[in-house]
Amino acid sequence: MKVYRFILNPKAGNGKAPLLEKMIREYRLSSEKRFELKFTEYAGHAALLAAEAVKENCYAVIAIGGDGTVNEVAGALVNTNTLLGILPMGSGNGLARHLGYTMNPAKAIAQIINAGAGQMDTLQINDRLSVNVSGMGFDGYVAWLFNTSGKRGLSTYTAVALKAFNAYKSATFEFRSEEHSLTREAHMLVIANASQFGNKAIIAPGASVDDGFMECVFVHKPPFYRLPGLFLRLFSGKIKDTDYLQTIKCRSFTVTTSRPLHVHLDGESIEPVSELRVEIRPRSLKILKVA
């Protein structure tokens, strides 16, 4: 029997947790499949629950939440035979959107039960996991401000970013990969395994989660008046290399910066650093491949 273990934070989805629980418990399944539901009780509990599912040979673990929750659950599933699924309930849902999940919970559950098995790459960033999009510099700083603001949503993120934009100073990045050696003054360095931050903000349109490569996007600080046009292209999926963006495709790299910079991993901020070591781990995570 295939066991699908859902991991749910009772506070997820702005009060939608009881409705999600009801949908999961009442979903009609064949005799060959079973749904189980586990609730998180504290920070980091999702990773422990996912690790338990691996030990119990569950077929799949379904992360209910956003990219931060997905990252936590995925960390316990890397290099195992248990598949990752996503029931998107975050503020951005970047990886879920890239993989083709609908934002409608009932339809997403149907996608999960009808999905096949696939594989995707993961990133190792200073010995930490990233599965979607991470960054260093301005977006890391904004992630830190956003995560400490106490509010979620695209409108909050945009307001925080615009308020910080003018004051935030660029830094010098010294980048070394197997094929590239360069020094750049940049506002931020985006490290993309998948294509988007979330909310359809597509920073790396050519990114694929199963090609063995990451896309590194240097973003140079544009004049404030150019932001509306760049945002339009970002959210329409038409962003491309310009005077303000340079994309490098690679399997691994190291970067050092002229000062410690904030970093985020899949939207979750970590402490500022002045060096990153990044490596792709090809097809290291099994996933539910939705249609």
Protein described:
The protein has 291 residues and is α+β, with helices and mostly antiparallel strands. It has two domains: 120 residues, 3-Layer(aba) Sandwich (Rossmann fold); 155 residues, Sandwich (Tumour Suppressor Smad4). Helices cover 27% and strands 38% of the residues. It has eight helices and 14 strands. Strands 5, 6, 7, 8, 9, 10, 11, 12, 13 and 14 form a ten-stranded antiparallel sheet that branches. It has a four-stranded parallel sheet with strand order 2-1-3-4, with helices on both faces. Helix 2 packs parallel to helix 3.
Features:
Tumour Suppressor Smad4; 27% helix; alpha+beta; 2 domains; 291 residues; four-stranded parallel β-sheet; single chain; Rossmann fold
In short:
The protein contains eight helices and 14 strands.
Could you give a short account of the major beta sheet?
10 strands, antiparallel
Compute the gyration radius: what is it? 19 Å
Q: Percent range for helical residues?
A: 25-40%
Determine the N-to-C terminus distance.
Answer: 22 Å
In the CATH hierarchy, the third-tier topology of the largest domain is known as Tumour Suppressor Smad4
Order of helices and strands: EHEHEHEHHEEEHHEEEEHEEE
Per DSSP E runs of 2 or more residues, the count of β-strands stands at 14
CATH class wording of the largest domain: Mainly Beta
CATH architectural group of the largest domain: Sandwich
User: With helices defined by DSSP (H or I, 4 residues minimum), what is the helix count?
Assistant: 8
Which regions have little confidence, pLDDT < 50, spanning 5+ residues? none
Percentage of β-strand residues: 35-45%
Report the average pLDDT across residues.
Answer: 94
**Given the C-alpha coordinates, what overall shape results?**
globular
- The helix/strand class is alpha+beta
Tally of domains:
2
